[in-house]
Write a structure and sequence with these properties.
Blueprint: E1 4-8, E2 13-17, H1 24-35, E3 42-45, E4 48-49, E5 61-65, H2 78-89, H3 93-100, H4 106-125, H5 130-147, H6 157-166, H7 173-180, H8 186-197, E6 201-204, E7 207-210
Parallel strand pairs: 1-5
Antiparallel strand pairs: 1-2, 3-4, 3-5, 6-7
Helix pairs in contact: 2-5, 3-4, 3-5, 4-5, 6-7
């Protein structure tokens, strides 16, 4: 049988199913309820994050994996914790910077951020359900506060663990993954890139280190 291996890592579910020729979005839609795949999960094929339009081939290994975790003991509402994690993991603060450069009125800035957040979600995860819409609303509210200078996003769980792992050392990405207990895959590499852009880490020929 021509097939593709599909894994949802958080639940340890692994199966080989005949989805060759389907794009990632259609597979996610078909399996989301069966595997309880989160809306905000990256599609990873053979270790690399791929767009929803990627068409699966024979032998591909497809994973659905969230890019961030939530630290225990955080008693804020689920939607707020998810929103903050997503803002960090996907550099959504860049939306605020892009909007500020346009010098728009407050109302126009909010409208543009809403459009950009919606486009980002649809492009990366597909059509949101009602629960995901609530989280997107929290993201927009958080970005509005950042745009007005009222708030800055906190570190998410993966970023905290990475900073603790690096400490005062210089480490390669693979060494950080081993020390932090993560796979050296798309989500970790994306988080490292985000942390470098936000000046939480420096990356040069010797590896990553803290500022």
């Amino acid at each position: 049988m021509i097939s593709t291996k599909v894994i949802f890592q958080d639940q340890g579910v692994e199966d080989r199913v005949p989805f060759v020729g389907f794009n990632v979005l259609s597979v996610k839609q078909r399996l989301r309820e069966t595997l309880t795949i989160p809306y905000f999960a990256d599609a990873i094929v053979n270790g690399a994050i791929v767009p929803l339009e990627y068409v699966l081939r024979d032998g591909d290994q497809l994973q659905f994996q969230k890019r961030f975790g939530i630290k225990g003991g955080d008693d804020r509402p689920f939607e707020e914790r998810e929103a903050e994690g997503l803002i960090h993991a996907y550099d959504l603060a860049e939306i605020v910077s892009a909007v500020k450069r346009r010098n728009l009125s407050k109302d126009d800035s909010i409208d543009l951020m809403a459009v950009m957040v919606g486009q980002w979600a649809a492009r990366n995860f597909g059509q949101p359900d009602s629960q995901s819409q609530k989280i997107l609303s929290k993201i927009l509210k958080r970005l509005e506060a950042m745009e007005s200078g009222e708030a800055e996003p906190r570190l998410n769980l993966m970023e905290q663990v990475i900073l603790e792992a690096v400490a005062d050392k210089e480490m390669t990405g693979k060494q950080i993954a081993m020390e932090a207990g993560y796979k050296f895959s798309g989500p970790l590499r994306a988080t490292l890139s985000s942390m470098v852009r936000r000046k939480l880490l420096i990356n040069d020929s010797s590896g990553y280190r803290r500022l």
